[in-house]
Amino acid sequence: MKKLCIVFCLMTDLAISQNIASCKERFDKYLNFRGSVSSYMRFEKDVMYLMGPGGKTELALYEEEIPALAALFEFGSQKKQVELISKKGLRRLSKRELDSLVKDNPSPITVKKEKGQMPLKGFKIALDPGHFATSLGEAFVEKKYLYFLPAGSALQDSVKIFESQLTFNTASLVKAMLEAQGATVFLSRDKSDFTSFNCTYSDWMRRHKGRTLDSLVKIGSLSPTKGNSLLKSNEVDFFWNFFRDFDLANRAAKINVFHPQVTAIIHYNVDEKNVPWTKHTNKNFSMAFIPGAFTSDNMARTEGKLSFLRLLVSNQLNRSASLAEQTVANFHKYLDIDIAKTCDATYLRDNCISTNCAGVYCRNLALCRKINSPLVYGESLYQDNEKESHLLMKSDIDLYGIKTNERLNKVAISYYEALMNFFEIK
Ligand SMILES: [Zn+2]
Fold it and tell me: 51 FRET partner, CA 20 to 30 A, in 130, 145, 207, 350?
């Protein structure tokens, strides 16, 4: 029997990324945090300019170049991107140059779909379960845990929740659900107590700390003085002064090597006003972050500038916004939690750009800048909420061989359905 072959093009809204007006809209709506990067861009009718220090025009991006440049910034290597920028300057690329840019940087986002096969066959999805600590010792370093007795009730069970355990179990559930539909799913770490280096923080400290610092000093990424002071620092200081960012960069690098069509970063939130989280809160909100909200310090380094250009010329931001909107809507629908408004948290008010999608905020987080795919960074609920903490500690159901509870299952379903919707599979 002749097989029916359909080529699925996932760039469903390609048109929105192809002109100066749509780039300007992304810049105004998502990228420019309170005018912080206004001086880095100048928009005209059929050209936009990236500006350098002192108002010097560094790079011209002409309207007809945008699709080819989007291919380069999404699918080309960093080396190729840097080479093109320095060679191009204000010059307009010829038709031949544009054609070869598209040809040399092919989209991995084309899936051959055959009749009768599973709906996500050929699709690649990355999941990043946040954090790593699942013991009180490591959690003390990372500060992503709850451990307390409910006030005035010594008879009640204590609250003991490790965010890393919640995120890992959720990611494992989402992975199983997506794989059941044929997807290839990548997790940024292999166990609930592993960092992205696939060992615990304590193991990494014991086996890799000295060697890693040495090699960073050798290649000039760290000064010898800084390397030496980090080597001598204790595990808490080392985490906050080095390892946290190092692990995040490694998560993004691993995900980018996988070349996913989409990424979900999974976290659980707390009430920021409930610090130091030794009691319950009655608040509970759902929200999600997407890239954007750039500030001038992001533009000082090549890596930040390349992320900015990718988000400006491609449609990743638009696709992230609709994925995040769907994810938050699902949190609200399945978990019955209110969607956070700007006034519900100071970081939403002070550090984010609110989008016109309910509960979706542009936040300038390392993973949001570094991961090269449409993404949602989900914060489904507050772990320290008086009702949630008890429900989250349960492990009374077994799904896909994973001991879990109904609350985590609902969070997982929220991500899963949003991702299915992203691929337009209902
Ligand atoms: Zn978190």
Answer: 350
